[in-house]
């Protein structure tokens, strides 16, 4: 395991083990109050416009790190996340307006602003796709303790190994909870995500 991976894993453990310990054997996603997760970043959207973490001040934020060439995990996770958001949006349109869903690419070599924008739009018009330089992406991933690593090259290209975590962050950028995008059968995950949004988003 490379140094970057070790660093990310240590931050994940530091940020998540304490909340897990407090919950014991609860099956609910752990609350992240006090966890060392989140922080400033500078990336770009589908138009190449600079987007900063501070631009979302006052809004709840759903954040997922992945890549558009992902053959399975990313599309399933993002579909569950946004299906859950859509359910919440339908039930509470006013509250949903105060939520910004965000997809951040960890494959900037292939995920251009346009590619990420098209990927995000396929799941929901409100989902904001972001990318940037390798350094910018690394800074964002490190702030969120999101692990990623490039896989081996093959005839069909390469895949990215990465953590499958969807974060719910608060209006001041504080970590609130993990959204259960991979909970149980595919039909159950969106309901679980909607339930978490119902619980935390005011």
Descriptive overview:
With 202 residues, this protein is of the alpha/beta class. The chain has one domain (3-200): 3-Layer(aba) Sandwich (Glutaredoxin), CATH 3.40.30. The protein is 38% helix and 19% strand. The chain contains six helices and nine strands, in the order H-E-E-E-H-H-E-H-E-H-E-E-E-E-H. It has a five-stranded mixed β-sheet. It has a two-stranded antiparallel sheet with strand order 1-2. Helix 2 (73-91) packs across helix 6. The longest helix has 21 residues, at 3-23. The radius of gyration is 16 Å and the shape is globular.
Which properties best describe this structure?
alpha/beta; Glutaredoxin; disordered N terminus; two-stranded antiparallel ribbon; globular; 202 residues; 9 strands
- Tell me about the biggest sheet? 5 strands, mixed
Number of domains: 1
Specify the CATH class: Alpha Beta
**Terminal CA distance:** 41 Å
Strand order of the largest sheet: 5-4-3-8-9
Per the CATH scheme, the topology name is Glutaredoxin
CATH architecture: 3-Layer(aba) Sandwich
Q: Structural class of the secondary structure composition? A: alpha/beta
What would the average pLDDT be, to the nearest integer? 87
Radius of gyration: 16 Å
What is the helix/strand order?
HEEEHHEHEHEEEEH
Helical stretch tally: 6
Strand content: 15-25%
The dominant shape is globular
């Amino acid at each position: 395991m490379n140094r970057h991976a070790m660093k990310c894993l240590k931050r994940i453990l530091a940020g998540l083990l304490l909340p897990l310990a407090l919950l014991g054997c609860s099956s609910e996603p752990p609350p992240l109050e006090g966890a060392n997760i989140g922080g400033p970043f500078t990336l770009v959207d589908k138009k190449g416009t600079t987007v900063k973490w501070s631009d979302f001040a006052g809004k709840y934020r759903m954040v997922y790190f992945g890549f558009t060439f992902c053959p399975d995990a990313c599309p399933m996770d993002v579909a569950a996340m946004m299906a859950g958001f859509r359910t919440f949006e339908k039930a509470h349109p006013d509250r949903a307006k105060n939520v910004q869903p965000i997809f951040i690419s960890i494959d900037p070599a292939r995920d251009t602003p346009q590619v990420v924008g098209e990927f995000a739009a396929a799941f929901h018009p409100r989902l904001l796709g972001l990318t940037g330089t390798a350094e910018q992406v690394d800074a964002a991933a490190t702030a969120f303790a999101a692990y990623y690593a490039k896989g081996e090259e093959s005839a069909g290209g390469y895949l990215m190994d990465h953590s499958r975590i969807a974060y719910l962050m608060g209006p001041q950028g504080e970590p609130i909870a993990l959204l259960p995008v991979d909970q149980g059968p595919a039909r159950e995950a969106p309901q679980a995500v909607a339930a978490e949004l119902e619980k935390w988003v005011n």
